[in-house]
Amino acid sequence: MDQPLPTTSRVLQDGQLEVREGHLVPVLAQPQNRRLLVLNSLALSHLAVGQTLVLHLEGGEPQLITLEAIDRLALLVRYQEGALEV
Length: 86
Description:
Layout: E1 13-20, E2 23-30, E3 35-38, H1 41-44, E4 52-57, E5 63-71, E6 76-81
């Protein structure tokens, strides 16, 4: 049976997006493509392109991300790692 190597990460990883201090929203993350599937449409409606948030991936350190694009209909967010410098 074909199975990926144990060192190959899953296609989607469980995570949480900290949209406000202490307020976490569940997401499915695809770090290879820097995309998030936001599992809370209400929270998604409060996000904006250019906004810097904290992404918590299961088994990893929290990281700052900046939103690049938002597809509210598909519940998808594309991001870049790090904070946007102004």
